Amino acid sequence: MFDIETIKNNGLCAGCGLCAGIAGHGTSPIVMEVSSEGYMRPNAVDPIPPALAETIDAVCPGANIRHDATTVGADYHPVWGPLVEARLGWSTDEELRRNASSGGGLSGILVHLLASGAIDYVVQTAVAQDSPVRNAMVISTGRDDVFHAAGSRYAPSSPLADIGARLDAPGRFAFVGKPCDVAGLRQLARRDPRVNQKVPVMIAFMCAGVPSYGGTSALLTAMGVQDESRVASFRYRGDGWPGFATARLDDGTAFTMDYDTSWGRILNRHLQFRCKICPDGVGEFADIVCADGWYCDADGNPLFDEREGRSIMLTRTLRGEAIVGEAITSGAIASEPLSLRSLNHMQPFQARRKGMVLPRLAAMMLSGRERPRFINLALGRNARMLGAKEILRSFAGTFRRLLAGQGRD
Predict the structure, then answer these.
(1) What is the count of structural domains for the chain?
(2) Are 355 and 386 in contact (CB under 8 A)?
(3) Is residue 254 in a domain?
C-alpha cells in the first residue's frame, strides 16, 4: 500500500493536495505545507484512519494514473489520449485574450459556463492574496474573477486541498487544474459519487512539470530582483503571447524576461521528480484540455515571438465537446480546425514525453524505488516510437540521478 510517507520518500508526490482534501475539513489529519525543497507536500499531523489510508492508496495521482479499460477505445490516441475533436481557439474578449497565457481559450470557456448558468463557480489556481510569488486556490464566479486568475503559474499549487469542503458545499463547479490534479479528481469520482454530481466539467492545461518556489526565486534573481520581499506584483507570462515574466517592485521598478529564457533556461531546471516520470502531461482525464498553439517555422519547430494568442483545445468527452461547441455558438470563443500533425509540431515535448516513462520506471526499479501504477496509457507503444537511443538516454539519466539520491522528499 502507498501511504503518504512512502509516496513522498520515493519521489512520487505531485503536491496536488487530494489526500488532505479528502481527509476532512476543519480537523484534517493531513495538512499541506511547503517543503524544504520548495514544493507543496502533505504532512500527517494526526494518525490516518485505515479507511482514509486505503482511499489515498487508490486515488493519489502521484501513485496512480490509470484509465478504465473501457476508456481506451477506438478514440484513444496513444500519444494524445481520449480524443473527440481538436481545434485551435481563442477568446473573443480581446482583453481576456491578451491577459491570458495562450489566447484565453480556457478562460473563454469558463466565462461561457458561468454566464450560461451551467455552473455556479470555478475552482482554479491564481496568485495568492498574501504573496505575489505564491499560488492559491481561488473561487471564480464571474468574468472579472476569471480575468484576474488567468495566466500561467509556474510554481507549486494544491487545488484539491479542500476538495472535501467543495463537495459538501452548495453549488456545482468547474474544476481547472494540472493533468495530475484532474486525474486525481477523476479517480476520486470512481469512489465518491458526489464528484460527478458536483463537478459537471473538469478542464486541464497541458503541463511540462512543476518548478519549486526555489525556481521562482532563481528566476527573480536572474531578472535582477535583489530583494524578493520588495516584489509588489509578479506574473510568469501573459499580457501578450507568450508574454514576458514581469516583476514590479514596491517603488514601481519593473523587471522582465522573455518566455524562452524564463521557462527554457531557468524554471524547468527546478522540476520535482514526479514530473520527470509523468505519463500524462496532456490532461487525458479531463473533459477539455488547452495548451499553447505555437506557430512553427518552416522546419516545424515552435516559435516564441510575440503574437496574438491562440490555444490548442482538445475535447476528450462528449460532454466536453458539447461545452466547447456551445461556447463557439455563443460567441465566447472563436476556433479553427487543428490536425494532429500540426499538434505534434506545436507541442513536440508532449508528443514524445510518454515514450520516456517506461525507461525511467525501469531505472526506479533497479535503484530500489517504489514505482507508481500507470495503467492503460499505451506506454509500451510510446517507448517503441521513441527508439532505442532515446530509451537508453532516458534510463541512464534517471538511474544516475536516483543513485545520487535525487527524487526523495
Answers:
(1) 1
(2) yes
(3) yes
